[in-house]
Design a protein that fits this description.
The chain is mainly α. It is built from 49 helices and 2 strands. Strand 1 and strand 2 form a beta hairpin. Helix 17 crosses helix 19. The chain is flat, with a radius of gyration of 43 Å. The chain starts with 64 loop residues before the first strand and ends in a 5-residue tail after the last helix.
């Protein structure tokens, strides 16, 4: 506990010759300065001593009334707190009632106010009149601390609920109204304010958070109210002085001497009141703010910073100077985003007023770099406010921010967080676009290239190109939309810059600049038409207001009228450039097509259709063709009257394409002739166009299946078909089948249609399967992707939703197809990056090529995993996928993990069997590579164990939901471990016994009762000799048994992993508990082993506390009533209800032998010798376990100490772990220099309060000796900063 001098019960304010409000330059004085108890003004009463509190007021010893309620025996009824809490009464009337009671009996009214603050802190205690008269403040606070509520850690300011949310506002309003109503007389009586400030200062120094938080808020709001009073006094003094000067400057004959004396007297009174208010503010500032602005609680620090910002804004003459600004500057390095946010909002209020800029110059120069760095704050709200603050700084003066400072904000327009981007866009707009040329009054408006926006649009293009993020034009437009929508929607100017010739002396746009302008123009059209941010930046759909909807309709009408005329010339000018044409062709997708009819623009529509057809004939680029197809699809809307015209143009174009394709194909496939490159190119280009249009348009009337299938079949037979032709033929055939299915699914179909579709689909699947073995990687990938899609579409799920008529179309892959699909994944997806050469055309060294290749492989894996999830292929095929989880975690970890999660939702048990199967496959692969005598510390084995641990974590924490699955996993794992006996004969471990070490990673997921059942199932495979083995080769069995036994008390990680210190302590307790059991063992050595084993099972199920059976001590845990040999086999048959194992007819229980498995053989041993040896082994094992536990404990303690030291070193040197909460680096700016006056006057009068044990005292264990040390809040580098 922090011991400190006791706070005085009353405050005496210093009398200085300088009556201005003193700043922290006075902080070197002691915080409890004693001065004369009375003012020089004789008309005011001096404050009474502590023992005189109750004797000076009117009726001090009588019962008074407060708000119409009696107060008796010196105890008040706390109605003031209740009234404020309910918030139903007008605060003005509540305060007026209190003032009336104060005038009647100020002691009782003040007692009511004191209890109000105590109650607002959540304390159930009440300050009585006797306590108020006879006890010091420190003693009262100590008493209230002892009477704090023990049941809850909450208090009114932190409680949830609508009532308590309003309470804070009512509480602050009460204080403000109280000061406002008392500002003309009562606050100068040297009694009310002295007592209140003394109480709040004492409470704010308490170690009880509720007291400290509530009193700090009250003191800061009290200070704000006093600042308003001081401001009014200052204004009145100025007015009085001005009146006095005016009267004095009059001629002697006209001068009124009595008025001069009256004004002089009034000014003197105002000056005295001002001095007294400043003394009160000094007391609050030095007694509360200076300590609490660096409190350990972020909420308290935020309150202080928020209020000092208000003081500087309200009373700038007194507070807006470097002595107070430095507190805001220092606190910008706070660890908590809430506090940093309050600093920025406080500064925004100051920078918004341009008249204050000259007073902020020194602060700006000192802390500008910190503000700029906060634009990259980890808290987005802080970053947004930092950018807004810089915008205000930029608005006030242009010279402060350097080009480097501005550039650090510019790039944030591409941020994925929209509020940050919008704020950066506003900064960018003010910086770059605030120099718009003014238009002359009365002059005609300049349009097109001569528009005043022309230069600004060029500036936008230049900025976009210099940022070198050409794929993010939509983000740039969205960022500038709110601040520069008028500029961005000047499409007439943009089209003028593209179509019109440059003016004399004007430099024309380059090809690169024209491409960027077209891309920006497309993004602005999309933003105006859709009215939502681009993908990756939106926060969900937002309901548009009526005004926004009207703006959207107006914009669509305007853009349609403009681009319907301008688009055909633009397409004609740039028809050769694929990139420009692709962007321009997307514009009609956002048109209001009705305008073509209502605006009489049909001729422009015909020109547009001609241009699109010419582009289709000129280009073979897939992206251009698909854009043309989408544009036709947008124009072919049956709701509009232009549909017939567009449909005719589309049909004519497609007729020509299909006829041309059939002619070329016939010539291309003629027997005996080898096709030349020109024929192949013609076929490919035509097929590309047809495929692109078939994606969005139904071309079923042209029967493309026959021609494409013939082309694919020829490619299989000859093997020399160009790969691109095969790829597009596969894609086109896929579209044919999908469009056919769409028609059949509509309901109106004939039986012949179903038969035809079923035949075509199966033929196509067989064709794709044959292409899986093609030599060309691109063809194989296309065939695999399409095949996965077709299998998923025509799976058994297509009949759901009332579509039973599609039952004949269901197609399930056979085993050979499933094997080929899996083989393709294993050979084309799970490969090293350097091995993938085929799919990137020799550009593997290019980083972009590598990323594209990885993206393609991820799509292939996702396509196959969908087949597993939707039960199209057997779930156990996922074992080959799951076993790659660790090796390819960075590339495919998210896909594999999601697949595991989905399969577990479908069938938990089958998923568990698949997981254990994947581990068994890896184990077998390791044995084939390393042999049976492998080292269990090898990287291969440790990798399998780590994979098992990862699998275990995916089961989650709900053991009830995964109970059956985990039990089945252990069953399969145990059977696998004992499946293959040792080739060296008995006495040697089974070949797969080491797999139990891997299986132990799942032991922590077993429920306690299931651990016993699994352990009994394990013993069915064990012989007696196995239980006695202690060689290294038997350690997997020993560790697995221990994990099942120790887990009876602690479901943590496996025992072998050694991660749990709890498990160690539990095991030590069990070792102690086993000692008295061992003492009884000698009385039971003559009993049959079969009876002992079975009786132990019976006891284990009957023990309510689930006492774990120690290792190899089941023979000691029998009840005398169970010493019977007859019924034991029946109980033995019920080992595991979930396993349902059949009894072995060849294995009969013998009264002197343990149960045997059919595979393994044991040699009978004398029973007494067995038990004696077992007891000796058990004692040795306990000693070894205790030594191991102690070693682990020492190692863990050393590791913790080492970690703490490393963290301390990192905090000192600026190094941080990735997963550790950041201290300063990403939220605070390091600084240089010394800050000599930070700790000036910072001694803390913390009370020595003996807090009783309580849940509410949670802070008591958190507080350190350096409780109020600034280092707990700020970086050490900041503590050494010199402010000015």
């Amino acid at each position: 506990m922090i011991a400190a001098p006791e706070l005085p019960s009353e405050f005496h304010y210093p009398q200085d010759s300088d009556t201005r409000f003193s700043s922290d330059t006075d902080f070197s004085e002691a915080p409890d300065v004693s001065i004369n108890p009375t003012k020089g003004k004789g008309g005011k009463k001096g404050k009474k001593a502590v023992g005189e509190k109750g004797r000076g007021g009117k009726g001090g010893g009588e019962s008074g009334r407060m708000n119409g309620h009696h107060q008796e025996n010196g105890m008040e009824n706390m109605m003031l707190f209740e009234v404020v809490k309910m918030g139903k009464s007008a605060m003005q009337s509540v305060v007026d009632d209190w003032i009336e009671s104060y005038k009647v009996d100020r002691d009782m009214a003040l007692l009511d106010l004191i209890n109000f603050f105590i109650q607002c802190s959540g304390c159930k205690g009440v300050v009585s009149g006797e306590m108020f008269r006879n006890m010091q403040n420190s003693e009262i606070i100590r008493r209230m601390t002892e009477e704090f509520d023990e049941d809850s850690g909450d208090y009114p300011l932190t409680m949830a609920g609508p009532l308590w949310k309003k309470f804070k506002g009512s509480f602050c309003e009460f204080i403000a109204v109280l000061v406002r109503q008392c500002q003309y007389s009562i606050i100068y009586d040297e009694y009310l304010m002295d007592t209140v400030i003394s109480l709040l200062t004492g409470l704010s120094d308490s170690q009880v958070r509720a007291f400290r938080h509530t009193s700090t808020l009250a003191a800061m709001k009290l200070m704000t109210a006093l600042v308003n009073v001081a401001l009014n006094l200052s204004i009145n003094m100025d007015n009085t002085q001005r009146q006095y000067e005016t009267e004095r400057n009059k001629m002697v004959a006209k001068r009124a001497n009595d008025r001069l004396e009256l004004l002089l007297q009034k000014r003197k009174e105002l000056q005295e009141n001002q001095d007294e208010i400043e003394n009160m503010m000094n007391a609050i500032f030095k007694g509360v703010f200076v300590h609490r602005y660096r409190d350990a609680i972020a909420e308290i620090r935020a309150i202080c910073i928020e209020e000092i910002g208000m003081w500087m804004k309200l009373y700038s003459d007194a507070f807006l100077n470097d002595s107070y600004l430095k507190y805001v500057g220092w606190t910008m390095h706070d660890k908590q985003g809430e506090v940093r946010l309050k600093c920025l909002t406080a500064l925004q209020g100051l920078y918004y007023n341009r008249e204050l800029n000259t007073r902020l110059e020194l602060f700006t120069s000192r802390f500008k770099d910190r503000i700029v760095s906060m634009t990259l704050d980890k808290e987005y709200d802080v970053a947004v406010q930092a950018i807004k603050l810089l915008t205000l700084v930029l608005h006030s003066t242009d010279e402060v921010l350097s080009p480097e400072d501005c550039e650090s904000v510019y790039h944030l327009v591409y941020s994925a967080h929209r509020p940050v981007a919008i704020a950066a866009g506003e900064f960018l707009f003010k910086k770059l676009f605030s120099t718009r040329e003014p238009e002359e009054e009365g002059a005609p408006r300049r349009r097109g290239r001569q528009s005043p926006n022309a230069n600004l649009i060029k500036t936008t293009v230049f900025f976009f190109l210099e940022s070198e993020l050409h794929e993010h034009a939509a983000y740039l437009v969205d960022s500038l939309w709110e601040s520069g929508a008028e500029l961005l929607k000047d499409w007439e100017c943009m089209t003028g810059l593209l179509l019109d010739d440059p003016l004399p002396g004007e430099e024309a746009l380059t090809d690169r600049q024209e491409t960027a302008l077209i891309e920006i123009m497309l993004c602005t059209v999309r933003q105006a038409a859709e009215c939502h941010p681009p993908i990756g930046r939106g926060t969900g759909k937002r309901v548009m207001t009526a005004k926004e909807k009207k703006t959207q309709l107006d914009d669509r009408t305007r853009m349609t009228e403009l681009f319907a005329v301008a688009l055909p010339p633009l397409l004609a000018k740039y028809s050769i450039d694929a990139e420009k044409v692709t962007n321009l062709l997307q514009l009609p997708q956002f048109f209001d097509l009705e305008i073509y009819t209502t605006g009489r623009l049909e001729k422009h529509l015909e020109a547009l259709l001609r241009q699109i057809r010419e582009i289709v004939e000129k280009h073979t680029d897939t992206e251009v063709l698909e854009t043309c197809s989408k544009t036709y699809h947008a124009l072919c809307n049956e709701e509009f009257t232009i549909f017939n015209k567009v449909d005719i143009a589309r049909s004519q174009m497609l007729d020509e394409l299909v006829d041309k394709f059939n002619r070329l194909l016939e010539d291309f496939l003629q027997e005996g002739e080898e096709p030349d490159e020109d024929d192949a190119y013609q076929v490919l280009s035509t097929l590309k166009r047809i495929t692109a249009f078939h994606n969005a348009h139904d071309l079923s009337q042209w029967d493309l299946f026959t021609s494409n299938f013939k082309l694919l079949n020829t490619g299989i037979e000859n093997g020399d078909m160009p790969e691109q032709i095969v790829v597009h033929a596969l894609q086109c055939t896929h579209y044919v089948i999908l469009w056919h299915l769409a028609k059949v699914s509509e309901g109106s179909h004939r039986k012949e249609d179903l038969v035809t579709l079923r035949k075509q689909m199966r033929m196509f699947c067989l064709m794709c399967q044959r292409y899986l073995t093609n030599v060309n990687t691109t063809v194989k990938e296309q065939a695999f992707t399409i095949l996965c899609d077709v299998l998923l579409i025509f799976s058994h799920q297509m009949v759901s939703g009332g579509r039973e008529q599609l039952e004949p179309l269901v197609y399930s892959p056979d085993d050979s197809l499933q094997r080929e699909l899996l083989s393709f994944i294993l050979h084309h997806v799970f490969i090293d990056q350097d091995d993938d050469n085929g799919s990137t055309d020799g550009q593997q060294d290019d980083e972009a090529g590598k990323i594209e290749a990885l993206h393609k492989r991820r799509n292939l894996l996702a396509a196959y995993c969908k087949l597993i999830i939707y039960n199209v292929v057997e779930m156990n095929t996922g074992a080959d996928i799951f076993k790659q989880y660790m090796r390819y975690y960075n590339d495919y970890g998210d896909i594999i993990k999601e697949t595991m999660s989905k399969t577990r939702q479908i069938d938990k048990i089958q998923c568990a069997k698949t997981l254990i199967l994947s581990l068994q496959q890896l184990f077998n692969e390791m044995l084939s590579e390393l042999g049976t005598g492998f080292d269990r510390s090898s990287s291969a084995f440790c990798g399998i164990k780590e994979l098992a641990r990862r699998f275990s974590l995916t089961f989650g924490l709900d053991q009830v939901k995964t109970r059956d699955a985990i039990a089945m996993l252990h069953k399969d794992g145990i059977e696998f471990a004992f499946k293959e006996p040792s080739p060296q004969g008995e006495g040697n471990p089974p070949v797969y016994l080491a797999f139990l070490d891997i299986l132990s990673e799942f032991s922590s997921k077993l429920m306690r009762q299931d651990k016993r059942t699994v352990h009994m199932y394990l013993e069915r495979f064990m012989t007696f000799q196995m239980a006695l083995q202690r060689e290294d080769c038997w350690l997997p069995l020993i560790s697995y048994r221990n994990s099942l036994q120790a887990g009876g008390d602690d479901d943590t990680m496996s025992v072998v992993s050694g991660y749990s210190s709890r498990g160690s302590s539990v095991r030590s307790k069990k070792a102690k508990a086993a000692t008295p059991i061992a003492n009884v063992a000698t009385a039971k050595r003559k009993l049959p082993e079969a009876e002992e084993s079975s009786s132990s099972v019976d006891v284990s199920w009957q023990t309510p506390g689930m006492m774990p059976s120690p290792h190899l001590t089941s023979t000691m845990m029998r009840n005398p009533g169970d010493m019977r040999g007859e019924p034991k086999r029946a109980r033995d048959d019920s080992y595991m209800g979930v396993y349902a194992l059949p009894p072995d007819p060849q294995q009969q229980p013998h009264p002197h032998t343990l149960p045997q498995t059919p595979q393994l053989h044991q040699t009978p041993i004398d029973y007494n010798t067995q038990v004696t040896w077992m007891l000796a082994q058990r004692q040795q094992e306990e000693v070894r376990q205790e030594e191991v536990r102690q070693q682990q404990e020492r190692a863990m303690n050393y590791a913790k100490l080492r970690t703490n030291l490393q963290h301390a070193i990192r905090r000192g040197t600026g190094l941080m772990e990735e997963d550790e909460e950041p201290i300063v680096e990403d939220v605070m700016m390091s600084s240089e220099g010394r800050m000599d006056d930070l700790n000036e006057g910072m001694d803390f009068d913390t009370m020595d309060i003996d807090l009783p044990p309580s849940k509410n005292r949670r802070e008591r264990s958190e507080l350190k000796p350096d409780y109020f040390d600034p280092a707990s809040i700020m970086d050490e580098s900041v503590l050494g900063v010199s402010m000015f």
